[in-house]
């Protein structure tokens, strides 16, 4: 169940961060409301996830997957540029998330 909580926290954070840009500095009502609610849901489920998953693992997965997804959303939906240093950095984040996740499974 704790992995489901982490999944919900990640999805909520991705939605909140995506609509943060659309809120245009909290001047647009609907995206602003979605952003605030999304972050609230994200932190609530993140707090449930850390009850069973080590906080370092939880945060690494939450932030790493969030960064990868937000960068992808920024590229496709907001037409933000991707350059090679960014792509390489994201690859390192992805590798780090995989290593952290694998080390968590082998340490039990």
What attributes characterize this protein structure?
108 residues; mainly alpha; 81% helix; 0% strand; flat
Question: Can you describe this structure?
Answer:
- The longest helix has 23 residues, at 55-77.
- The relative contact order is 0.14.
- The protein is flat and about 45 Å long.
- It has one domain (2-106).
- With 108 residues, it is mainly alpha-helical.
- Helices cover 81% and strands 0% of the residues.
- The chain contains four helices and no strands.
- The two termini are 17 Å apart.
> Given the structure, what is the number of helices?
4
Largest sheet: none
Find the count of extended strands (DSSP E, 2+ residues). Answer: 0
State the assembly state of the protein chains: single chain
Order of helices and strands: HHHH
What structural class do the secondary elements suggest? mainly alpha
As residue ranges, the low-confidence spans are: none
Shape: flat
Q: pLDDT average, as an integer?
A: 93
As a percent range, the share of helical residues equals over 70%
Strand content: under 5%
Q: Could you tell me how far the N terminus lies from the C terminus, measured between alpha carbons in angstroms?
A: 17 Å
Structural Rg: 15 Å
How many distinct domains?
1
Main location: membrane
GO molecular function: transmembrane transporter activity
Keywords: Cell membrane, Membrane, Transmembrane, Transmembrane helix, Transport
Organism: Flammeovirga agarivorans
């Amino acid at each position: 169940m704790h992995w489901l909580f982490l999944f919900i926290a990640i999805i909520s954070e991705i939605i909140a961060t995506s609509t943060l840009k659309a809120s245009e500095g909290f001047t647009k009502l609907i995206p602003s409301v979605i952003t605030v609610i999304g972050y609230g849901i994200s932190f609530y489920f993140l707090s449930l996830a850390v009850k069973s998953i080590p906080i370092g693992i939880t945060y690494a997965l939450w932030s790493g997957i969030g960064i990868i997804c937000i960068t992808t959303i920024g590229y496709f939906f907001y037409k933000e540029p991707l350059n090679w240093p960014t792509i390489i950095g994201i690859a390192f984040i992805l590798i780090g998330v995989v290593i952290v996740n694998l080390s968590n499974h082998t340490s039990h």
